[in-house]
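Posting here for the record, re: NAP.
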Amino acid sequence: MSPTVIITGASQGIGKATALLFAQQGYDVVLAARQPERLEVVAAEVRNLGRQALAIPTDVSQVEQVNHLIEKALDVYSHIDVLVNNAGICMTGPIENTSLSDWQQIMNVNFWAYLYTIQAILPHFLQRGTGTIVNVGSFGGKMPLPNMTAYCTSKYAVTGLTETLRLELQPKGIHVCAVQPSVTNSDFMERSQFRGKDEQEAQKYRQQMNDILNTAVASQPEDVAQAIWDVVKHHKDEIVVGSGAVTTTVYRLFPSLMQWIMQKTS
Ligand SMILES: NC(=O)c1ccc[n+]([C@@H]2O[C@H](COP(=O)([O-])OP(=O)(O)OC[C@H]3O[C@@H](n4cnc5c(N)ncnc54)[C@H](OP(=O)(O)O)[C@@H]3O)[C@@H](O)[C@H]2O)c1
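Prediction output follows.
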Protein backbone atom coordinates (compact mmCIF):
# COMPACT_ATOMS: atom_id res chain seq x y z
CA MET A 1 0.00 0.00 0.00
CA SER A 2 1.56 3.31 -1.10
CA PRO A 3 1.68 6.25 1.31
CA THR A 4 -0.74 9.07 0.52
CA VAL A 5 -0.49 12.85 1.03
CA ILE A 6 -3.15 15.57 0.77
CA ILE A 7 -1.76 18.97 -0.25
CA THR A 8 -3.82 22.17 -0.27
CA GLY A 9 -2.83 24.96 -2.63
CA ALA A 10 -1.31 22.27 -4.85
CA SER A 11 -1.94 23.87 -8.24
CA GLN A 12 1.16 26.07 -8.27
CA GLY A 13 4.07 27.50 -6.29
CA ILE A 14 5.14 25.68 -3.13
CA GLY A 15 2.18 23.28 -3.19
CA LYS A 16 2.92 22.12 -6.72
CA ALA A 17 6.64 21.64 -5.99
CA THR A 18 5.66 19.64 -2.88
CA ALA A 19 3.26 17.43 -4.85
CA LEU A 20 5.97 16.57 -7.38
CA LEU A 21 8.58 15.89 -4.69
CA PHE A 22 6.27 13.58 -2.70
CA ALA A 23 5.37 11.75 -5.94
CA GLN A 24 9.09 11.25 -6.61
CA GLN A 25 9.39 9.83 -3.09
CA GLY A 26 6.67 7.24 -3.80
CA TYR A 27 3.53 8.96 -2.51
CA ASP A 28 0.12 9.03 -4.16
CA VAL A 29 -1.08 12.62 -4.05
CA VAL A 30 -4.45 14.28 -3.41
CA LEU A 31 -4.35 17.80 -4.83
CA ALA A 32 -6.63 20.63 -3.67
CA ALA A 33 -7.05 24.21 -4.90
CA ARG A 34 -9.88 26.14 -6.49
CA GLN A 35 -9.01 26.12 -10.21
CA PRO A 36 -9.64 22.64 -11.69
CA GLU A 37 -7.66 23.10 -14.92
CA ARG A 38 -4.48 24.02 -13.07
CA LEU A 39 -4.93 21.12 -10.66
CA GLU A 40 -5.30 18.69 -13.57
CA VAL A 41 -2.00 19.89 -15.05
CA VAL A 42 -0.22 19.03 -11.78
CA ALA A 43 -2.13 15.73 -11.53
CA ALA A 44 -0.85 14.79 -14.99
CA GLU A 45 2.73 15.59 -13.91
CA VAL A 46 2.33 13.39 -10.83
CA ARG A 47 1.03 10.52 -12.99
CA ASN A 48 4.01 10.97 -15.33
CA LEU A 49 6.17 10.25 -12.30
CA GLY A 50 4.40 6.89 -11.93
CA ARG A 51 2.16 7.76 -8.96
CA GLN A 52 -1.58 8.16 -8.60
CA ALA A 53 -3.08 11.66 -8.38
CA LEU A 54 -6.56 12.77 -7.39
CA ALA A 55 -7.44 16.41 -8.11
CA ILE A 56 -10.31 17.73 -6.00
CA PRO A 57 -11.27 21.36 -6.69
CA THR A 58 -11.76 22.91 -3.25
CA ASP A 59 -12.10 26.35 -1.76
CA VAL A 60 -10.46 25.67 1.59
CA SER A 61 -12.17 28.65 3.20
CA GLN A 62 -15.48 26.74 2.88
CA VAL A 63 -15.81 24.10 5.58
CA GLU A 64 -18.28 21.92 3.61
CA GLN A 65 -15.85 21.78 0.68
CA VAL A 66 -13.00 20.80 3.00
CA ASN A 67 -15.12 18.04 4.53
CA HIS A 68 -15.87 16.78 1.02
CA LEU A 69 -12.14 16.87 0.17
CA ILE A 70 -11.20 14.66 3.10
CA GLU A 71 -14.16 12.29 2.64
CA LYS A 72 -13.40 11.86 -1.06
CA ALA A 73 -9.69 11.29 -0.41
CA LEU A 74 -10.49 8.61 2.18
CA ASP A 75 -13.09 6.98 -0.12
CA VAL A 76 -10.52 6.63 -2.88
CA TYR A 77 -7.38 5.76 -0.91
CA SER A 78 -8.85 4.42 2.39
CA HIS A 79 -5.86 5.86 4.24
CA ILE A 80 -4.07 9.21 4.40
CA ASP A 81 -0.58 9.47 5.88
CA VAL A 82 0.26 13.17 5.56
CA LEU A 83 -1.75 16.39 5.41
CA VAL A 84 0.08 19.47 4.09
CA ASN A 85 -1.83 22.66 4.87
CA ASN A 86 -0.31 25.07 2.39
CA ALA A 87 -2.97 27.17 0.58
CA GLY A 88 -2.45 30.77 1.62
CA ILE A 89 -2.75 34.35 0.46
CA CYS A 90 -0.70 37.44 1.22
CA MET A 91 -1.86 40.95 2.08
CA THR A 92 0.23 44.10 2.59
CA GLY A 93 -0.91 47.54 3.68
CA PRO A 94 -1.28 49.80 6.73
CA ILE A 95 -3.97 48.77 9.21
CA GLU A 96 -6.05 51.89 8.56
CA ASN A 97 -6.40 50.78 4.93
CA THR A 98 -7.16 47.14 5.75
CA SER A 99 -10.91 46.55 5.99
CA LEU A 100 -12.67 44.05 8.23
CA SER A 101 -13.57 42.03 5.17
CA ASP A 102 -9.84 41.95 4.22
CA TRP A 103 -9.12 40.57 7.69
CA GLN A 104 -11.87 37.99 7.41
CA GLN A 105 -10.66 36.84 4.02
CA ILE A 106 -7.06 36.40 5.13
CA MET A 107 -7.99 34.67 8.38
CA ASN A 108 -10.42 32.39 6.53
CA VAL A 109 -7.79 31.13 4.09
CA ASN A 110 -4.62 31.33 6.16
CA PHE A 111 -5.96 30.18 9.52
CA TRP A 112 -9.52 28.79 9.60
CA ALA A 113 -8.96 26.59 6.56
CA TYR A 114 -6.02 24.92 8.34
CA LEU A 115 -8.31 24.10 11.24
CA TYR A 116 -11.05 22.79 8.91
CA THR A 117 -8.71 20.23 7.32
CA ILE A 118 -7.27 19.20 10.68
CA GLN A 119 -10.72 18.72 12.23
CA ALA A 120 -11.84 16.69 9.24
CA ILE A 121 -8.84 14.36 9.14
CA LEU A 122 -8.22 13.98 12.86
CA PRO A 123 -10.70 11.11 13.48
CA HIS A 124 -8.85 9.11 10.80
CA PHE A 125 -5.42 9.84 12.27
CA LEU A 126 -6.61 9.11 15.83
CA GLN A 127 -8.17 5.84 14.76
CA ARG A 128 -4.92 4.75 13.10
CA GLY A 129 -2.74 6.17 15.90
CA THR A 130 -0.49 7.73 13.28
CA GLY A 131 -0.37 10.59 10.76
CA THR A 132 1.54 13.78 10.02
CA ILE A 133 0.18 17.32 9.81
CA VAL A 134 2.46 19.89 8.17
CA ASN A 135 1.35 23.50 8.50
CA VAL A 136 3.07 25.83 6.05
CA GLY A 137 3.29 29.14 7.90
CA SER A 138 5.72 31.96 7.24
CA PHE A 139 8.70 33.63 8.85
CA GLY A 140 6.01 36.31 9.41
CA GLY A 141 4.50 33.87 11.91
CA LYS A 142 7.62 34.18 14.05
CA MET A 143 8.44 37.87 13.75
CA PRO A 144 6.46 40.98 12.76
CA LEU A 145 6.82 42.41 9.24
CA PRO A 146 6.12 46.07 8.41
CA ASN A 147 2.61 46.82 7.09
CA MET A 148 1.63 43.17 7.22
CA THR A 149 -0.42 43.05 10.40
CA ALA A 150 -3.27 40.94 8.98
CA TYR A 151 -0.92 38.49 7.26
CA CYS A 152 1.38 38.14 10.28
CA THR A 153 -1.58 37.71 12.63
CA SER A 154 -2.86 34.84 10.51
CA LYS A 155 0.58 33.23 10.43
CA TYR A 156 1.23 33.73 14.17
CA ALA A 157 -2.11 31.95 14.68
CA VAL A 158 -0.81 29.05 12.60
CA THR A 159 2.37 28.92 14.71
CA GLY A 160 0.26 28.81 17.89
CA LEU A 161 -2.01 26.15 16.44
CA THR A 162 0.94 24.01 15.36
CA GLU A 163 2.93 24.18 18.59
CA THR A 164 -0.05 23.64 20.90
CA LEU A 165 -1.50 20.84 18.82
CA ARG A 166 1.88 19.09 18.80
CA LEU A 167 1.87 19.04 22.58
CA GLU A 168 -1.55 17.41 22.55
CA LEU A 169 -1.23 14.97 19.65
CA GLN A 170 2.35 13.72 19.94
CA PRO A 171 1.43 11.21 22.71
CA LYS A 172 -1.32 9.92 20.38
CA GLY A 173 1.15 9.11 17.61
CA ILE A 174 0.41 12.14 15.44
CA HIS A 175 3.26 14.35 14.32
CA VAL A 176 2.42 18.07 13.96
CA CYS A 177 5.09 20.23 12.35
CA ALA A 178 5.69 23.61 10.77
CA VAL A 179 7.55 24.80 7.71
CA GLN A 180 8.06 28.55 7.76
CA PRO A 181 9.08 29.89 4.35
CA SER A 182 10.81 33.23 3.93
CA VAL A 183 10.24 35.27 0.78
CA THR A 184 9.82 32.65 -1.95
CA ASN A 185 9.75 33.21 -5.68
CA SER A 186 6.49 31.33 -6.29
CA ASP A 187 3.40 32.54 -8.13
CA PHE A 188 1.99 34.25 -5.07
CA MET A 189 2.08 37.79 -6.53
CA GLU A 190 -0.78 36.58 -8.75
CA ARG A 191 -3.22 36.71 -5.84
CA SER A 192 -1.34 38.90 -3.32
CA GLN A 193 -3.33 41.93 -2.27
CA PHE A 194 -1.97 45.40 -1.56
CA ARG A 195 -3.69 48.22 0.27
CA GLY A 196 -2.79 51.91 0.73
CA LYS A 197 -4.38 55.30 1.25
CA ASP A 198 -4.66 55.43 -2.54
CA GLU A 199 -3.84 53.28 -5.56
CA GLN A 200 -0.36 54.83 -5.84
CA GLU A 201 0.58 53.72 -2.32
CA ALA A 202 -0.83 50.23 -2.93
CA GLN A 203 1.27 50.02 -6.11
CA LYS A 204 4.35 51.10 -4.13
CA TYR A 205 3.89 48.11 -1.79
CA ARG A 206 3.35 45.81 -4.79
CA GLN A 207 6.56 47.05 -6.39
CA GLN A 208 8.54 46.61 -3.14
CA MET A 209 7.34 43.01 -2.82
CA ASN A 210 8.12 42.34 -6.46
CA ASP A 211 11.64 43.72 -6.02
CA ILE A 212 12.34 41.50 -2.99
CA LEU A 213 11.05 38.42 -4.83
CA ASN A 214 13.56 39.05 -7.59
CA THR A 215 16.62 39.27 -5.34
CA ALA A 216 19.00 36.45 -4.51
CA VAL A 217 17.57 36.44 -0.97
CA ALA A 218 14.37 34.79 -2.23
CA SER A 219 13.97 31.03 -1.86
CA GLN A 220 12.54 28.85 -4.61
CA PRO A 221 9.36 26.74 -4.19
CA GLU A 222 11.53 23.61 -4.45
CA ASP A 223 13.54 24.71 -1.36
CA VAL A 224 10.32 24.87 0.66
CA ALA A 225 9.10 21.55 -0.77
CA GLN A 226 12.38 19.97 0.34
CA ALA A 227 11.87 21.33 3.86
CA ILE A 228 8.33 19.90 3.91
CA TRP A 229 9.75 16.53 2.91
CA ASP A 230 12.47 16.80 5.60
CA VAL A 231 10.03 17.51 8.46
CA VAL A 232 7.92 14.53 7.42
CA LYS A 233 10.77 12.08 6.79
CA HIS A 234 12.90 13.04 9.80
CA HIS A 235 10.06 13.87 12.22
CA LYS A 236 11.29 17.43 12.74
CA ASP A 237 9.15 19.96 14.58
CA GLU A 238 9.96 22.98 12.44
CA ILE A 239 12.12 24.28 9.64
CA VAL A 240 12.47 27.97 8.83
CA VAL A 241 13.48 28.09 5.18
CA GLY A 242 15.86 30.66 3.70
CA SER A 243 16.93 34.05 4.99
CA GLY A 244 14.21 34.13 7.67
CA ALA A 245 16.13 31.48 9.63
CA VAL A 246 18.62 34.16 10.68
CA THR A 247 16.21 37.08 11.08
CA THR A 248 13.70 35.13 13.19
CA THR A 249 16.53 33.96 15.47
CA VAL A 250 17.80 37.53 15.89
CA TYR A 251 14.20 38.67 16.56
CA ARG A 252 13.73 35.98 19.24
CA LEU A 253 16.96 37.12 20.96
CA PHE A 254 16.55 40.90 20.54
CA PRO A 255 12.87 41.72 19.87
CA SER A 256 12.99 45.38 20.95
CA LEU A 257 16.12 46.09 18.94
CA MET A 258 14.61 44.48 15.84
CA GLN A 259 11.34 46.40 16.25
CA TRP A 260 13.34 49.63 16.52
CA ILE A 261 15.36 48.81 13.38
CA MET A 262 12.23 47.90 11.41
CA GLN A 263 10.47 51.13 12.45
CA LYS A 264 13.49 53.18 11.37
CA THR A 265 13.92 51.44 8.02
CA SER A 266 10.35 50.78 6.83
N1 LIG B 1 5.79 32.98 -1.50
C1 LIG B 1 6.24 33.52 -0.39
O1 LIG B 1 7.05 34.47 -0.37
C2 LIG B 1 5.81 32.94 0.93
C3 LIG B 1 6.48 33.37 2.09
C4 LIG B 1 6.09 32.87 3.32
C5 LIG B 1 5.04 31.96 3.39
N2 LIG B 1 4.40 31.55 2.25
C6 LIG B 1 3.28 30.64 2.41
O2 LIG B 1 3.44 29.50 1.57
C7 LIG B 1 2.17 28.98 1.20
C8 LIG B 1 2.12 28.75 -0.30
O3 LIG B 1 2.33 30.00 -0.94
P1 LIG B 1 2.85 30.14 -2.44
O4 LIG B 1 3.90 31.17 -2.39
O5 LIG B 1 3.15 28.82 -3.05
O6 LIG B 1 1.54 30.79 -3.10
P2 LIG B 1 0.94 30.74 -4.59
O7 LIG B 1 1.98 30.50 -5.59
O8 LIG B 1 0.07 31.93 -4.69
O9 LIG B 1 -0.02 29.45 -4.52
C9 LIG B 1 -1.13 29.47 -3.68
C10 LIG B 1 -1.93 28.21 -3.87
O10 LIG B 1 -3.02 28.25 -2.94
C11 LIG B 1 -4.24 28.08 -3.66
N3 LIG B 1 -5.29 28.80 -2.97
C12 LIG B 1 -5.38 30.14 -2.70
N4 LIG B 1 -6.53 30.41 -2.08
C13 LIG B 1 -7.20 29.23 -1.96
C14 LIG B 1 -8.45 28.85 -1.44
N5 LIG B 1 -9.30 29.73 -0.89
N6 LIG B 1 -8.81 27.54 -1.48
C15 LIG B 1 -7.98 26.62 -2.03
N7 LIG B 1 -6.79 26.92 -2.53
C16 LIG B 1 -6.41 28.21 -2.51
C17 LIG B 1 -3.95 28.58 -5.07
O11 LIG B 1 -4.79 28.00 -6.06
P3 LIG B 1 -6.23 28.60 -6.49
O12 LIG B 1 -6.10 30.08 -6.62
O13 LIG B 1 -6.58 27.90 -7.75
O14 LIG B 1 -7.18 28.21 -5.40
C18 LIG B 1 -2.52 28.07 -5.25
O15 LIG B 1 -2.53 26.70 -5.58
C19 LIG B 1 1.14 29.99 1.71
O16 LIG B 1 0.57 29.53 2.92
C20 LIG B 1 1.97 31.25 1.94
O17 LIG B 1 1.44 32.10 2.94
C21 LIG B 1 4.76 32.02 1.04
